[in-house]
Amino acid sequence: MLLFFKRIALLEGLSLLLLIFFAMPMKYVMDQKEYVQVIGMAHGILFIAYILLALILKFTKKWNVKLFLIACVASLIPFGTFYLEKKYL
Q1: Cβ neighbours of residue 19 under 8 Å, at least 6 residues apart?
Q2: Among candidates 45, 47, 26, 46, which has minimal Cα distance to 36?
Q3: 54-63 long-range Cβ contacts below 8 angstroms, 24+ apart
Q4: Neighbours of 7 (CB within 10 A)
Q5: How far apart are alpha carbons 35 and 6 in whole angstroms?
Q6: Which CA distances in Å does 35 have to 13, 17, 44?
Q7: What's the pLDDT score for residue 42?
Q8: Do the beta carbons of residue 19 and residue 75 sit within 8 Å?
Q9: pLDDT tens, 6-30?
Q10: Are 26 and 35 in contact (CB under 8 A)?
Q11: In a 3-state reduction of DSSP, which class is residue 38?
């Protein structure tokens, strides 16, 4: 389960970076909203999967509250999931 969480964390982190640094500029600079719709949907699904898996791991792997909260906050910050994996997982 932890390996699956790491993979989802990687994909979630990449989708956040794509959304912020590619899709949003394309929307506001080039007026192309399609990228935000596609990447935003993928990021939303990955974000939900990431949080659900973190919640599952909190109870199955007996994560303490601090680690769980760090994992949740890491999903909101660009490069946060990469930091979480390197430092805590």
Answers
A1: 36, 39, 40, 43
A2: 26
A3: 54/5, 56/1, 57/1, 57/2, 57/5, 60/1, 61/1, 61/2
A4: 11
A5: 25
A6: 17, 13, 14
A7: 95
A8: no
A9: 999 999 999 999 999 999 999 999 9
A10: yes
A11: helix
Neighbouring residues of 24: CB distance < 8 A, sequence distance ≥ 6? 36
Quote the distance between the C-alpha of residue 70 and its chain's center: 12
Question: 47, 12 in Cβ contact below 8 A?
Answer: yes
Q: Are 24 and 38 in contact (CB under 8 A)?
A: no
Task: Give residue 60's domain range.
Answer: 2-88
**Overall number of domains in the chain:** 1
- Residue count of the chain: 89
* 49 contacts: CB under 8 Å, gap ≥ 6: 8, 12
